[in-house]
Specification:
By secondary structure, the protein is α/β, with parallel strands linked by helices. It contains 14 helices and eight strands.
């Protein structure tokens, strides 16, 4: 259900088979508003669509229902029992790490108080990373690694209302594609980096994990760890310009001809105080 866990499996770098499981508690509780959201209705991660928490709960397999009571009966505490179960699996060596996703500041504070380990990872949106100062400060304080899962969709959806901001990202990408490292062009195809790649690379260089979120093989290659890691380091000015452009995309407030917009510059200065590294 919407409060359930997801798992990611990563291979070990050692020889042989060594499966490592990373579990994510996706939501602290179910929200009926989720089922009418653009993210839910258009996400391939939810192949079966429901209209309410109750409908989703009733559709669960009977075997799942027998494992415990419905979280809808105790929305404020059910997620805590789920996290305790994940902790037990972690202490037994079944899980490599525990993470949470889409938790607000109040729920995160409760989690910090009750947890015996982790969370190791927080999966959230680009908007949350740059605009939810209280939440991000708490993550930094407790050493929680941020993974951003909607970078690509946010950048592409925002460029319609902030075309100059997106063009700034493309100019930076074109410039970075011609930067030389030890006499070698950074991008061997000499075509530069796309606006999306620029934002992904900027986040990676800040210590933020990124999940491109695509089933397209070409896009997976373009946004692969190797490609992003090979991107030249941003200069302080370039990093500031990327941040300004991203905030413009998020707010739907485009840059003017001089590359600034009302309220964006001050927001950048404030946001620069909160970094994930």
């Amino acid at each position: 259900n919407s409060q359930g866990s997801s798992t990611n499996i990563t291979p070990s770098s050692s020889s042989g088979v060594d499966i490592r499981i990373h579990a994510i508690l996706q939501y602290p509780r179910c929200y009926d508003t989720l089922f009418t959201s653009h993210l839910y209705l258009n996400s391939p991660n939810f192949p079966q669509k429901y209209t309410s928490c109750q409908e989703e709960e009733e559709a669960l397999d009977e075997t799942i229902k027998l494992t415990g009571s419905s979280p809808l009966l105790d929305k404020d505490n059910a997620w805590k029992r789920s996290y305790r179960a994940l902790e037990e699996l972690y202490h037994h060596g079944t899980l490599e790490s525990i993470g949470v996703s889409n938790f607000g500041p109040a729920d995160m504070e409760s989690l910090y108080d009750l947890s015996t380990v982790g969370p190791h990872v927080y999966q959230g949106t680009l908007r949350t990373l740059l605009l939810e100062e209280e939440l991000v400060e708490g993550l930094v304080k407790h050493g929680v690694h941020y993974q951003c899962y909607d970078v690509v969709s946010t950048v592409l959806e925002g460029k319609g209302d902030a075309q100059r901001a997106y063009e700034m990202l493309e100019r930076i990408g074109a410039k970075l594609g011609n930067v030389q490292r030890n006499g070698v062009i950074a991008n061997e195809n000499n075509v530069g980096y796309s606006g999306v790649q620029v934002v992904l690379g900027w986040l990676v260089q800040r210590g933020v994990g990124v999940i491109p979120g695509t089933f397209n093989l070409q896009h997976l290659v373009e946004n692969s760890p190797d490609v992003l890691a090979s991107m030249p380091r941003f200069t302080p000015r370039e990093a500031l310009d990327v941040e300004m452009a991203v905030l413009a995309l998020l707010r739907g407030e485009d840059l003017d001809d001089e590359g600034t917009a009302s309220g964006i510059a001050s927001a950048v200065n404030e946001a620069r105080k909160h970094t994930m590294i």
